[in-house]
Amino acid sequence: MSAPTLQPDPVDEAAAQPGRDSVELQLCAIWRKLLDRQDVGVHDDFFELGGHSLLAIKHVVEIRKHFKIDITVSDLIGTRTIAELAPIVRQGGSREQGPLVRLQVGTSGVPVYAFPPVSGTVLVYPQVARAVGTAHTFWALQSSGLNPGEEPLGSIEEIAAHFIRAMRTVHPDGTPWHLLGYSMGGLIAFEVARQLRAAGERVGLVGLLDTRTTVEPSDDPDFALRALLFRGLRLELDVDWLRSLTPEERSAVLLEKAHAAGTVPADFDAERLRRMIDMYQHNLDALAGYEVGPFDGRLVLYRVTDRAMEPENYPEDLGWTEFAAEVTVTAVPGDHFTMIEPGNVEALAAAIRADLTDLAELTELT
């Protein structure tokens, strides 16, 4: 079978290309804070964006503090871009070995936490974080098993408990917990909220981004590969042709195309690719075994208006009223996939901001 002719567009090095893994995303957040600008890409030059020697020193301090590694000003000057700096951070034993990824530094003391979809990565959230704004520090969490030395967790309950332990290391005492989740991430947010309430914690916003109470297992044996291609690597390649290759050939092709498209970092290797594919299946298995239980709090379901992709029998509340004490359904533009893309994410973020503001005002009154 011949190779497909459809190839991704070449990378525009002049564009502000966003981070492609958790390290690059966190470095982008640090640069945005230091340089006081939002248009930071992984190929941008720190000094051409307005950096100078004093900011370089502050940059080194931020990296040491955030990633717990030893890095020097000469490392920064010698690399200049996030794409060049990120491998040094990874090799230095960065805090990528853990689920927490800080995407935005906020001005208030109440953070927002966002949980991963079936891919297990945080890559769906940077545009959400930026659109929501800087009133809240925005943390995203990635699934265990994506990084070397990590084992995937077998149930939604275990995943939620693991995430709570990580969040407690950064969560300010006495502040409410604001939780968001896109797709499968909404089920994790829901279970996190249940466990926090059971522990006597004050839960604020529990926002479900077009999340259903049940997820039917896929009968497509290539689902994980398709999901990785189209959502993770953003490549349009023929799946049947890929399946005709040996595992080694397939990995080599995917890495070559992803590197050329700029959707993975330059030091992304076959082992990381395998873990990404496996993560889809691990999370699907966890979803299949999860039974939604009662929640004595309020949920906000951000429900898409474009439902052409849905079966006709999906209820307006996607089944949540049966399990929560209160459910608010908020309409947002787009379909399940485009709701978090530019053009639609701004309206979603505005709705999230409004809910966070309402909860803050309610807290002040009580």
From TrEMBL:
GO biological process annotation, one example: monocarboxylic acid biosynthetic process
Record keywords, A-Z: Phosphopantetheine, Phosphoprotein
Gene3D superfamilies assigned: ACP-like (1.10.1200.10), alpha/beta hydrolase (3.40.50.1820)
Occurrences of domain Carrier (ranges): 18-93
Any GO CC annotation of this UniProt entry: cytoplasm
UniProt xrefs under Pfam families: PP-binding, Thioesterase
Gene Ontology molecular function, alphabetical: phosphopantetheine binding
Necessary cofactors: pantetheine 4'-phosphate
InterPro entries assigned to the protein according to its UniProt record, in alphabetical order: AB_hydrolase_fold (IPR029058), ACP-like_sf (IPR036736), PP-bd_ACP (IPR009081), TesA-like (IPR020802), Thioesterase (IPR001031)
Family in the record: Belongs to the ATP-dependent AMP-binding enzyme family.
Protein name in the entry: Thioesterase domain-containing protein
Species whose genome carries this gene: Streptacidiphilus jiangxiensis
